[in-house]
Amino acid sequence: IEMIDPVRYISNQSSGKQGYEIASQLSLNGAKVTLISGPTNLTAPSNIKLVKIKSAKEMYKQVQKISNIDYGFFTAAVSDFKNKKIITKKIKKNDNYNLDLVKNIDILKKIGNDKKRKPKVLIGFAAETGNVDLARKKLIEKNCDIIVYNKIDEYNKVFGSDFNKITLVTKTNTKEIKKMTKVNCAKKIIEYIYNYQLINE
Ligand code: CTP
User: Fold this and answer.
1) How far is the CA of 94 from the centre of ligand 1 (A)?
2) Angle of CA points 184, 59, 45, to nearest 5°
């Protein structure tokens, strides 16, 4: 979330559920997991390190603190824009005020293109109303190994839902998965990465 004034903020509909399920499944598989999370109503899985943040800037700061990562999952729906200046006093309805939005830092792109900090396997996510080519474009731009593509439409109302319909995308491969629970999507993603590594090692 990006604060506008002490009571208002910019955010989006993402619940964080898919990210929390991935963290949970990784932990159940024996991984040492750090979950850097924006505000949610979810209970964090046990046996993981939870780091709570609010803004993109705070998330980036925490991501930078971790080095030698085997797997980086960038599930967060980071706000693409923020207000240029956070107003310190509540904006009153009779104030004549316009938002002055500026672009936010793209955390995944920064990390993907940083040789020193890039995890061994980098997994990005792409929420699109358009087709899978847009996800592959993000894979290249952000230098990811795998992109998890979510088509946002009437059939896949992903926000807040316990279900998801994902497609796993690499440079050369596209694997469509049928609609299933976010828990099972997390398992599919982990299984796919395991096989991806066997092929690419
Ligand atoms: N991401 C990020 N920092 C941002 C925006 C996105 O790290 N400021 C990451 C997300 O965590 C995700 C990937 O980039 O893994 C794609 O996010 P998405 O919202 O689908 O796309 P954007 O890059 O924001 O592009 P657009 O909104 O134009 O589709």
Assistant:
1) 35
2) 35
The reported pTM is 0.95
What does the buried/exposed string (b/e) look like for 77-94 if buried means 16 or more CB atoms within 10 Å of the residue's CB?
bbbeebbeeeeeeeeeee
Handedness of CA 48, 53, 56, 61 (dihedral sign): negative
- Predicted pLDDT at 88: 96
Tell me the HSE value of 77 on the side-chain side, using a 13 A CA sphere: 20
What is the number of alpha carbons within 13 Å of residue 7 lying toward its C-beta? 5
Mean pLDDT of 129-154: 94
Residues with CB under 6 A from ligand 1: 56, 74, 76-78, 80, 104, 106-108, 124-127, 138
Catalytic annotation present for 12: yes
Closest CA to 35 of 13, 12, 54, 63: 63
Q: What are phi and psi of 182, to 5 degrees?
A: -65, -30
Give residue 3 CA to ligand 1 midpoint distance, Å.
19
Per DSSP bridges, beta strands 121-128 and 163-164 are unpaired
Please report, rounded to a whole number, the percentage of residues in the chain having pLDDT higher than 70.
100
Task: Confirm if 146 and 193 have CB atoms less than 8 A apart.
Answer: yes
Mean pLDDT of the chain: 95
